[in-house]
Design a protein that fits this description.
single chain; alpha/beta; Rossmann fold; Alpha-Beta Plaits; 2 domains; four-stranded antiparallel sheet; 28% helix; binds ribose-5-phosphate
Length: 224
């Protein structure tokens, strides 16, 4: 099976996961990336069965709107029943690295507002230990060099992601060769550096459900 076929299969599985719970008041939290794009596309036939969505990026908002799905302001919605998003890496505890598409901060905000985070991924994203994928850190532009020096002290090799500005007007540093033994502690440690907006570790609050697409089907793991 190709990676695209695996992504399509997990997008189908995510629709099956949420469809029974949709009603006219439901507002979905929607992530960002190629896997979620396939999920968004599959929402089109259901668009009259739920109220709308909160998007974690301008790109996802545009895709939702193009399908006729209302995009709502998170400040007007309160708690969301579901947040559906992909991952760059996910471990057995459903902790993740995210932000390969630079959407990490809004993703973390929308995820924080959701009762249930459903991570949708293909098997290439499943890892024993987080950190092979370079960990993204969103920084206030004037703090970029300072944050880079602090990341070196923590053992990372920071690389400025040139030409990328986040939806929040900030910049991204990717941390290569990073040993992440305790993801929740590292998430907190990085967020404590002045000038860091957030980092791509979703560890203190990981996913609640992982739908993992494999050659022989989609495996479901639920922590709650
Ligand atoms: O900023 C991007 C997000 O964290 C994505 O969820 C992540 O990069 C996975 O994207 P994809 O489904 O394209 O692999």
């Amino acid at each position: 099976m190709t990676q695209d076929a695996l992504k399509a299969a997990v997008a189908d599985a995510a629709i099956k996961e949420i469809e029974p719970w949709l009603d006219r008041n439901t507002v979905l939290g929607i992530g960002t990336g190629s896997t979620v794009n396939l999920f968004i596309d599959r929402l089109r036939p259901l668009r009259d069965s739920f109220r709308g969505a909160v998007a974690s990026s301008e790109a996802s908002a545009e895709r939702l709107k193009a399908l006729g799905i209302d995009v709502l302001d998170l400040n007007s919605t309160g708690t969301l029943p579901f947040y559906i998003d992909g991952a760059d890496e996910v471990n057995a505890n459903l902790q993740m690295i995210k932000g390969g598409g630079a959407a990490l901060t809004r993703e973390k905000i929308v995820a924080a507002c959701a009762r249930r985070f459903i991570c949708i991924a293909d098997e290439s994203k499943h890892v024993a230990r987080l950190g092979d994928f370079p960990l993204p850190v969103e920084v206030i532009p004037m703090a970029r060099s300072y944050v880079g020096r602090e990341l070196v002290k923590l053992g990372a090799e920071p690389v400025y992601r040139q030409g990328v500005t986040t939806d929040n007007g900030n910049q991204i540093i990717d941390c290569f060769d990073f040993m992440i033994d305790d993801p929740a502690a590292m998430e907190a440690r990085l967020n404590a550096i002045a000038g860091v907006v957030t980092n791509g570790l979703f560890a203190a609050r990981g996913a609640d459900v992982l739908l993992l697409s494999k050659g022989d089907g989609v495996a479901r793991t639920a922590l709650s």
